[in-house]
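Hmm, what's this shape?
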Amino acid sequence: MVIVVMGVSGVGKTTIGQQLAAAQAWHFIDADDLHPEANRQKMASGQPLTDADRWPWLALVRQQIEAACSQNQSLVLACSALRADYRAYLQINQQVHFVHLVGDPGLIQARLQQRSNHFMPSSLLTSQLATLEIPSNALTLNVDAEPSTLVERIQQWILGLE
């Protein structure tokens, strides 16, 4: 099974994804780590990515999903997956499921401004929110709850999928 923890930057994908992976004893991958340096530099300079930037990166993300599925390895993947066509591309089979983290834009903006070691500036949040297409086939959770509570909710949801 592959759980893609998705949403805009600063919503907590990495935090929740890492905690979920640890709780489930599953492998964790942060799709941000797969971005080529050119994408990182572009975002760091305050420029939003285009589809020409995103599709090669999404191909790398999909390769990780394919590898996990082919090896029957459970995986938690933190990935923005903002648009429906990106999610369709990543959902290679019925074992890929999405958890959409949402939150008040003010809270997310504050989180982004507190981060010091990430290439994504808070100025790009508006662009990400504009790009986001709300998924209809995902577990949606508001990040105003504690991370441990969110992880427990996801674990209960996973039990219903198995």
DSSP finds seven helices and five strands in the chain. The chain has one domain: 2-161. The first strand starts at residue 2 and ends at 6.
